[in-house]
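the two lines:
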Amino acid sequence: MSGVGDALTRVHHEEWARVVATVARRFGDLDLAEEMAAEAFATAVERWPVDGVPPAPGAWLTTTANRKAIDRLRREARRDEKHREALVLSATPEPLGAIDDDRLRLVFTCCHPALAMEARVALTLRLVGGLTVAEIAHAFLVQETAMGQRITRAKAKIKAARIPYGVPLRDDLPARVTGVLAVLYLIFNEGYLASGPGAEAVRADLTGEAIRLTRLVHALLPADGEVAGLLALMLLTEARRAARVSASGELVTLAEQDRGAWDRALIAEGHALVRARLAAGQAPGRYQILAAINAVHTDAPDVRDTDWSQILALYDQLLRVDASPIVRLNRAIAVAELDGPEVALAQVADLPLADYHAYHAVRADLLRRLGRSGDSRAAYDRAIELSGNTAEQAYLTRRRDQLAT
Amino acid sequence: MTQYLISVLHDSDARATDDEMAAIDVFNERLQADGQWVFAGGLAGPDAATVIDARAAAPVYTDGPYVESKEFVIGFWIVEAPHLDVALRLAAAGSKACNRRVEVRPFLDA
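prediction for all of em together
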């Protein structure tokens, strides 16, 4: 029985977006698509333990969802003749855009610029990532009812404003892709540092989906440096995933990771993308610089071989593109390696990041290295309180408890 | 095809300049050539507005616009487009032509 349960969980992760996307393409209605996907999975929960898991679970779910959608629309059409016409019209998918991937259409629809940024992320996680409203609400620290309303409003706007269900035409693509990359990166990060007390420390389903979708966008726009940069950044980060959480479920920092456990194939692919961008000779954007920083880290066979001056130079370059406090915070980590923790501590002192767990974690580490145990302990406490990731909390707790009293 | 209202937002009593008028003419001609044109027009400012409420027995006339705000609608286009992406592109060209912010809203289905 637990075999069926595992299969359901796995199929949900792998197939949710495909089921939603296929029904949405066929009927042009995101609400209907989501409801029918949910009904199809509910049917699977009832039937699979009795009938066994079908040989092609994804196809089974898509067929079930499509049939349920047709049944639903037929029932409604009997009540309303006009609706029947609408069904016939919308059941013929409009060929739109340059690439034929249902999930990518779904991504571009969810990331449409006519939607607020927070609505884009929420919709993408719900419809493409298959996260529950509760999970999304927790990831973004808002009430579940508020998140539910945000998603409902976004779907209503898609319908009312006639936001097209498809990949934009080639002329519109570059402008639209920036927003898509921002959303995909947020999803990747939520997967890489998953939040929630019951959540796995790393949600490979989310990082995997973010990478898969970014690969598709890269295939569509191979000359776009930022798409390549984001893909490289994700690959170089994902390559370290296995080494990032210990057997006891504790976060392992970059410095302490077993570099032999890094995924060499992903690193090679990421490095190749970074090199290709350097060869292109164009001024790099944010993602390309972040990818280059990760390339320097993953280039070092041992943490002691890390080229910190190169990393600092890349952070200086990044500051010119993005002078945010978070960039300054990360730059300070390189400063600590080159100029010592005292200089770094002074540089982060005034950053307006009091509610950001990593800010306190960085400060805690710098204070520990300066022997200021009491201040360090307070900073660890604050970081543990603000972190939503179980592995990170375990790591920070151990570091705090190792402090001299 | 859906019709979209592109409202032109404005916040002073300055009229469109000659350059802006010329750019608007070019944009209008392109809309007509491409079959996206339905109707367009400029409006007098809010000080020319009168609000009428005839829901009661005798109509009541009130001098001025129905809502006092810094910004108001000074003109509009009605365009025809297959979906929002096309309407947004037209609205962006319209904003550039008239040198003002614009708002896009779809008409409800007939």
